[in-house]
């Protein structure tokens, strides 16, 4: 008889029972999540229209503002201008700006007139930029203001006269709706 058959079988002990689940942590977690969601709603309130558009949520029925977006049936059109290299005013030293920009139009048919008056548009933009100091176009807000001024000059070149708005600011209604900088470098 083999000796292995007579060896005693080792005892198997059961692991200790698991402690009962704690419900207190779950309640605190749910309350914390609710508080964070409420705070996030307050902070994101001004951006709700943007979030609704991104998430595909329907606009409010109560007559609130409709979501803003691009009409894919009639998308905006852009005209890319050749790059500009313009010497800036020398009050702050000899500096120049290199930029590439696009003119934004609401409708594609409005872009046809740009080719005819492109030399006039480029001339007006060159004169506008040449009169600027580097400190007048270095901050993002300054560049936004410059974009508005370029749009006004382009609309004037397209023979849309300037008008004063309710605040007394010079506005030029016309087909050029915005200017977008593709590249902006001050050296």
Description:
With 187 residues, the chain is α+β, with helices and mostly antiparallel strands. It folds into two domains: 24-69, no CATH class; 77-186, Band 7 domain (Tetrahydropterin Synthase, Chain A), CATH 3.30.479.30. The protein is 35% helix and 18% strand. The strands form two sheets. Strands 1, 2, 3 and 6 form a four-stranded antiparallel β-sheet that branches. It has a two-stranded antiparallel sheet with strand order 4-5. It starts with 23 loop residues before the first helix and ends with a strand.
Summarize the structure.
With 187 residues, the protein is α+β, with helices and mostly antiparallel strands. The chain has helices spanning 24-44, 48-55, 112-130, 140-157; strands at 77-80, 84-87, 96-105, 163-164, 170-171, 176-186.
Number of helices: 4
Radius of gyration: 33 Å
Please identify which CATH superfamily of the largest domain we are dealing with. Band 7 domain
Q: Would you tell me the structural class of the helices and strands?
A: alpha+beta
Mean pLDDT: 78
Number of domains: 2
Per DSSP, what share of the residues sits in E-state strands of 2 or more residues?
Answer: 15-25%
**How far apart are the first and last residues' alpha carbons, in Å?**
98 Å
CATH classification, class level of the largest domain: Alpha Beta
For the sheet with most strands, the description reads: 4 strands, antiparallel
Measured as a percent range, the helix fraction is: 25-40%
Q: What is the correct CATH architecture of the largest domain?
A: 2-Layer Sandwich
CATH overall fold name of the largest domain: Tetrahydropterin Synthase, Chain A
Low-confidence stretches: none
Number of strands: 6
- What pattern of helices and strands is seen along the backbone? HHEEEHHEEE
The shape, in one word, is: elongated
């Amino acid at each position: 008889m083999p000796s292995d058959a007579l060896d005693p079988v080792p005892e198997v002990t059961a692991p200790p029972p698991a402690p009962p689940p704690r419900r207190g942590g779950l309640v605190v977690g749910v309350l914390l999540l609710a508080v964070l969601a409420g705070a996030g709603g307050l902070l994101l309130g001004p951006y709700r229209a943007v979030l609704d558009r991104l998430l595909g949520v329907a606009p409010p029925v109560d007559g609130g503002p409709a979501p803003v977006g691009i009409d894919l049936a009639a998308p905006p059109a852009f005209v890319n201008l050749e790059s500009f290299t313009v010497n800036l005013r020398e009050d702050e030293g000899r500096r120049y700006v290199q930029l590439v920009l696009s003119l934004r139009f609401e409708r594609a048919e409005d872009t046809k007139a740009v080719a005819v008056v492109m030399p006039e548009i480029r001339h007006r933009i060159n004169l506008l930029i040449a009169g600027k100091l580097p400190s007048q176009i270095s901050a993002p807000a300054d560049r936004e203001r410059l974009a508005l001024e370029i749009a006004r000059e382009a609309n004037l070149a397209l023979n849309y006269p300037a008008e004063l708005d309710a605040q007394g600011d010079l506005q030029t209604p016309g087909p050029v709706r915005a200017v977008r900088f593709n590249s902006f470098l001050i050296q």
